[in-house]
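Sequence and structure are kept together here, with a separate record for every protein. A complete record is shown below as an example:
=====
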Amino acid sequence: GDDNSGRKVITFSCCRMPPSHQLNHTRLLEYLKYTLDQYVENDYTVVYFHYGLKSLNKPSLKWLQTAYKEFDRKYVSKTFVLPYLAFNILLTISFSFPRYKKNLKALYVVHPTNFIKILWNIFKPLISHKFGKKITYLNYLSDLGEHLKYDQLNIPQEVIRHDENLRRKQKGKLPPVVKVPPPRPPLPTQQFGMLLFLFFPLPDIIKDKNKGELIPPVMKETVSYLKSQGLRVEGLFRRSASIQTIKDVQKLYNQGKSVNFDDYHDIHIPAVILKAFLRELPQPLLTFDCYDHILGITSVESCLRVTRCKQIIQGLPEHNYVVLKYLMCFLHMVSQESIYNRMTASSLACVFGLNLIWPSKGTASLSALVPVNLFTELLIDFYTNIFNSRTVPGE
């Protein structure tokens, strides 16, 4: 899933760790490096579920030492790992710290024990204040809701049951039920979280609202600004922005007010806004119907994949096709400047893939990342070929 700033979320569940004698530690190291390599060059968040780490599945000190040597500063902050090596604990957290530590924006430790807190207080003076601010202890799963949509996460049932037991033990009863007010109807000028076809100027009421434009205003304005100001910005779409600023900009759009990105002096704000707009669509731009077809792209011969991509998008509704074509045209332009911005089609696909398509139920599995990213990369790389066979009136 994504956190509230659009950063990718990596979770690690201790209860999923098998007994140490059953685990091939060499393969685990390779798996962790392979997984993290897909994310550590971008801003990301880690959620660490501590429940389930026991003497039976706790890694040995010898293996921790091996891991310490294997994971260079791309993943590990040695000043942070060293004390935990001595106590043979929290191995998983140590894996999650990249060489570019600024890319790890938040680490949430869920269901921490008192021992973890004591250890952290002992070694806190050894850690930079800036880095220490990234770590947040959360006693209950519901606390995650303030930072991300935790229902997107694949949380083990053991962790959910443990959370329920903790709540029952809290003063011997469940916490009082908080009455949630009914959701407000969307504003007439609402932009975020709306079905895409509502932006498409077919009915007169929508035409008046959108001034006859085919492309949603948020997308058109962010893309236009990034075209003029951001094509050669290194790491475009890889960086996050102030959460409060993003909320303020979204509020302005939803109220129908104008947004001048020059006022914010941060090129990453319109980039995050564009990703947030796609991510908050009730239905993905590539539609739920395309999900299984996209997952099958890896089984198609390499020479036929572009043709298969073209076939898949031909089935999109007209409004989805227009918006997708507009977006891919822009991302193709970004990739053409990769010598400056370091954002190749592959890099952009890693950022946008799961913002364009996700399953109708649950969250995308790790195995879905490869086909989703590959499909997105093909759309960007072969934009001219894939989108040359279908036109839309008024486009």
Notes: The two ends are 33 Å apart (CA to CA). The chain has two domains: 8-172, 202-387. Residues 318-336 form the longest helix (19 residues). The beta strands are 8-13, 44-49, 104-110, 135-138.
